[in-house]
Amino acid sequence: MTSFAIVGHLxxxxxxxxxxxxxxxxxMDVLCRCVNASLFLSHDLRRDADCYLVLLGGPKAPKTVLxxxxxxxxxxxxERSAGALVKKAxxxxxxxxxxxxxxxxxxxxxGLERLFTEHAxxxxxxxxxxxxxxxxxxxxxLLSDHQNFSDAEEALVKDAPRYSVGPVCLHADHTITVxxxxxxxxxxxxx
Length: 191
Known about the structure:
Helix content is 28%, strand content 29%. It has 191 residues and is of the alpha/beta class. It has a single domain, classed as Alpha/beta knot (3-Layer(aba) Sandwich). The strands form two sheets. An eight-stranded mixed β-sheet has the order 6-7-5-4-1-9-8-10.
């Protein structure tokens, strides 16, 4: 199982946003692209992948929305589809445990601190070790949206291993695609 967690620093937590303006919802478009990059194959889903969206914008922050590839039933490969599922998840009351909003989509209160107690995340960072040089690819990865990690987030991840996907900085969704490709290559004996 591979898990990706993306921090949405400005992403709305109240669900009060238009699907026609996902960038205006705290760059929800970036997060939706990350959901799609984490889970979609050509004509199928990655059933062995999860995607966590850590939403930090708005009055109800922090909240975490989880997409489980093995359980999803109603996700199409476009930003609006992922955005609609996030919006639906944010519309239901939740507590400290994940609550199902739709098949394979869950929401709970809480953010990175809680996730770090549940997963041993590696941080994807352009200054990290080349992922192709490590003997084993980690199972959980943490990325930031269009903003850098805050000082508090950096303090939380200071001891996590850091990996890079190449010599230039990529968008978060592109980075996820490269990581998934590296995992696919290794699983299938490609070098």
